[in-house]
């Protein structure tokens, strides 16, 4: 379920959650013990199903949010992968200046190490 379908289901669940049933008012209309017994069973069944549906609908909403987060992460990873692929193609002809242009924070680190006479030994 994706897109508008999931949104409609979640919206319907929210709307259903706001629906108020006047159980006490309906119970007053019942005259026989058997009707009251059936009504009580109906109310318990309704409450059980309603609870299950609310749980499912909240899970759908959580999953939709997780789907959005995963989509963003997937896009970030795809972008990073494309950058790495581009660098892999250029690595054999890349100069230090090209590399430092792409990663300026490393230029300062290397300059500091050279200035401090730290040659990596």
TrEMBL record:
It comes from the Eukaryota. The keyword Ligase does not apply. Keywords: CF(0), Coiled coil, Hydrogen ion transport, Ion transport, Membrane, Mitochondrion, Mitochondrion inner membrane, Transport. GO terms for biological process: proton motive force-driven ATP synthesis. InterPro entries: ATP_synth_F0_dsu_mt (IPR008689), ATP_synth_F0_dsu_sf_mt (IPR036228). Residues 53-97 form a coiled coil. Its main location: mitochondrion. One of its GO terms (cellular component) is mitochondrial inner membrane. GO terms for molecular function: proton transmembrane transporter activity. It is found in: Mitochondrion inner membrane. Belongs to the ATPase d subunit family. This is ATP synthase subunit d, mitochondrial. The gene is LOC109939200.
């Amino acid at each position: 379920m994706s897109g508008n379908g999931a949104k409609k289901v979640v919206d319907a669940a929210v709307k259903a959650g706001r629906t108020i049933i006047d159980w006490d008012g309906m119970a007053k209309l019942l005259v026989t013990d058997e009707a009251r017994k059936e009504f009580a069973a109906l109310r318990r069944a309704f409450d059980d199903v309603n609870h299950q549906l609310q749980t499912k609908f909240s899970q759908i909403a959580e999953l939709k949010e997780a789907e959005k987060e995963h989509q963003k992460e997937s896009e970030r990873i795809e972008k990073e992968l494309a950058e790495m692929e581009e660098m892999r193609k250029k690595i054999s002809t890349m100069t230090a200046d090209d590399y430092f242009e792409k990663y300026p924070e490393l230029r300062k680190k290397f300059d500091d190490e050279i200035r401090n006479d730290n040659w990596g030994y």
